[in-house]
TrEMBL record:
Coiled coil: none
CDD domains linked: PBP2_NikA_DppA_OppA_like_13
Cited Gene3D superfamilies: Dipeptide-binding Protein, Domain 3, Periplasmic binding protein-like II
Designated name of the protein: Peptide/nickel transport system substrate-binding protein
InterPro entries with a match to the protein in the record: Peptide/Ni-bd, SBP_5, SBP_5_dom
Keyword tags: Signal
Source organism: Roseicyclus mahoneyensis
Compartments, record wording: Periplasm
Phylogenetic classification of the source organism: Bacteria, Pseudomonadati, Pseudomonadota, Alphaproteobacteria, Rhodobacterales
Length: 528
């Protein structure tokens, strides 16, 4: 890998020397991104595993993109219109887009992607597009969404990372959940998939036929997978890699790297993501089928200590399943405050009342705590959790497995008791929050949905009302009522709102240009 990078650097230098003026500052070069862990596949249309879209958002396009004010911007759709009743959305597609195999984009590709793929197989798309009863294609460049109920959140879910548009002539063949191109993606984005060397890197090369004239500026992107955390920091410090986000750099190292002249650190680029660190209980198996036991664990977790000592200040305590980023829009509610001064006393009392007294050794019961396999900070979080639970008489043993095994254990087999995790709120609670607690998101084999398998008719009804309401005040009331109910039931312990830092080299500009950060497509990224 090192020799490849040196060769790429030499080619970039030769390109820069062969042109003059401002063009030499913007055209050519290789941007090396670190993604950790390595994605399980390159199929973002059936899996929302975090690392996948860090790669594939450069390969696919969405109908829309978004600015930092979360306003829709043109992409494959150059214009659109929503009917007054919210039941019809008309997208006018660009007529100059071709997929990487040279086939032109048409409205049939949009129909196939929405109706046959995202609506049926995408973990969040199942909910996002459930009210889309048809996509009409009156001509090659017009796609008309017909809805059976208003879905105001839908317009916030159409970027390349969340809802990639697929070429129907390729992906309609065979089972979409086990497609032959799952690891060799073909899209219309600014970069073309070239190679995946497992355990090392994915290489993406410039799409010379991209519809944005003159873009992308870079010759290629190399996404590296480096298991060792200290090595990830070192290659950034040495200039062998240029960008990393989503916790790929240990948080204590971020504080050191941001002091370097060659490194910039920003928390910008996560406005549309709003991740919440959480712990999921298996509510269908003892001891966590007992609400009081779940509440006791919720009280036991020292949230501020976790923020300060695991994420080095990059976060704030969570007050429920909805991020405070939604507070300005009113789509926010506060639940039980589990960080009260006497939280340990409360937790112990709850366990006593639940019928779990301490034994002679001080232990009430033993559990296995699964750690989400996304880096060393999650292991440290697990270790702190073990210590916190010991304070209330619960002996926890950590289990750390690879990503595919952990996903299957959590979302297919439900073979766990308590697991750490994090979910993105996305740009609307309907898209990112409901999936974790709604009964219709209990879907064995579908990842990052309702893994606790808890639900209630009352909370389902509140979420259903918020889903179709076009009035902002109605939605606000629904969420303000929802959050206290969810935190009281405690199917999930919402620990903190994570404020990810992105580390990138000052050698490159315009790397983070949207509210999805390194999930962006890098079409504007260039060398300084």
């Amino acid at each position: 890998m090192k020799s490849f990078l040196l060769t790429a650097a030499g080619l970039a230098l030769a390109t820069a020397l062969s042109v003059g003026g401002a063009l030499a500052q913007t055209q050519g070069g290789t941007l090396v991104q670190i993604t950790q862990p390595e994605p399980p596949n390159l199929a973002p249309y059936v899996s929302t595993s975090g690392p996948i879209a860090q790669v594939t958002s450069k390969v696919f396009d969405g109908l829309l993109e978004y600015n930092f004010d979360l306003e829709p911007q043109p992409s494959l759709a150059e214009s659109w219109e929503v009917s007054a009743d919210g039941l019809t959305i008309t997208f006018n597609l660009r007529d100059d887009v071709v997929f990487h195999d040279g086939t032109p984009l048409t409205s049939e590709d949009v129909r196939f992607t929405i109706m046959d793929v995202l609506r049926e197989a995408h973990p969040r798309g199942i909910a996002t597009f459930r009210n889309v009863i048809a996509v009409e294609t009156p001509d090659r460049h017009t796609a008309i969404f017909r809805l059976d109920a208003p879905a105001p959140y839908l317009m916030m879910a159409l970027n390349s990372a969340e809802s990639p548009i697929l070429p129907a002539h390729i992906y309609a063949e065979g089972d979409i959940r086990a497609h032959g191109n799952a690891n060799e993606p073909i899209g219309s984005g600014p970069f073309v998939f070239t190679e995946w060397r497992r355990g090392e890197f994915v290489r993406l090369d410039r799409n010379d036929n991209y519809w944005r004239d003159g873009q992308p500026y870079l010759d290629r992107i190399v996404v590296r997978f480096i298991a060792d955390a200290s090595t990830r920091t070192a290659v950034l410090e040495q200039g062998e890699a240029h960008v990393a986000g989503f916790g790929a750099v240990p948080y204590q190292d971020v504080r050191r790297l941001e002091a370097l002249d060659t490194i910039e650190v920003t928390t910008r680029g996560y406005e549309m993501i709003s991740p919440i660190v959480e712990m999921i209980f298996n509510t269908q198996e003892p001891p966590f089928d007992n609400q009081m036991v779940r509440q006791a664990v919720n009280y036991a977790i020292d949230r501020q200590f976790v923020i300060d000592n695991v994420w080095f200040g990059y976060g704030v305590p969570a007050s429920g399943p909805i991020s405070s980023n939604f507070e300005p829009s009113g789509l926010f509610g506060r639940g039980i405050d589990f960080s009260v001064p006497d939280r340990i006393d409360i937790a112990n009392r709850l366990l006593d009342e639940a019928g779990f007294p301490r034994g002679a050794d001080g232990i009430r019961f033993e559990i296995t705590h699964d750690v989400t396999p996304y880096g060393e900070e999650w292991q440290r979080f697990g270790e702190i959790t073990v210590q916190n639970l010991a304070e209330i008489g619960i002996r926890a043993t950590l289990r750390y497995e690879d990503l595919p095994t952990w996903l299957a254990r959590t979302y297919t087999d439900y073979d766990f008791q308590l697991t750490s995790n994090f979910l993105f709120n996305q740009a609307d609670p309907v898209i990112g929050v409901h999936r974790g607690i709604h009964s219709d998101r209990i879907l064995p084999g579908t990842v990052f949905v309702n893994g606790s398998r808890w639900s209630s008719p009352e909370t389902d009804a509140l979420m259903d009302a918020a889903t179709v309401a076009t009035n902002a005040a109605t939605r606000q009331q629904a969420y303000q009522a929802l959050v206290p109910l969810v935190t009281e039931a405690s199917p999930v312990a919402y620990v903190l709102e994570l404020r990810y830092p992105t580390v990138h080299s000052t050698q490159f500009a315009d790397v983070i240009t949207s509210p999805i950060g390194i999930y962006g497509n890098y079409a504007f990224a260039h060398q300084r």
